[in-house]
């Protein structure tokens, strides 16, 4: 690129972002064994929900079988899914969590 020493450098993004990134829904699945309180704690800890919202989402999943806990870019969504599955395993609950494109 041409240098304009008098005017100062021409700054250009290396990779101009013309498109919004694909977003992913992180999804919780219901099961018969994971305690309600444990699901609420997951929503507070990994999805930054307050107790009221966490309880609402947990009850939605409990009643409908499935529910969205958050929407993120791919890397963040992947991390959330991994964190939830690891935490559930650690506590020997069968809680399932997955992601899908929005
Ligand atoms: N169905 C569970 C129970 O009755 C509670 C639960 C809610 C489990 C949401 C998983 O993603 C879930 N203890």
UniProtKB/TrEMBL annotation:
Residues in the signal sequence: none
Domain of life per record: Bacteria
Pfam families assigned: ClpS (PF02617)
Keywords tagged on the record: Hydrolase, Protease
GO molecular function: peptidase activity
Function: Involved in the modulation of the specificity of the ClpAP-mediated ATP-dependent protein degradation.
Similarity annotation: Belongs to the ClpS family.
UniProt name for this protein: ATP-dependent Clp protease adapter protein ClpS
Source organism: Sulfuricaulis limicola
Lineage: Bacteria, Pseudomonadati, Pseudomonadota, Gammaproteobacteria, Acidiferrobacterales
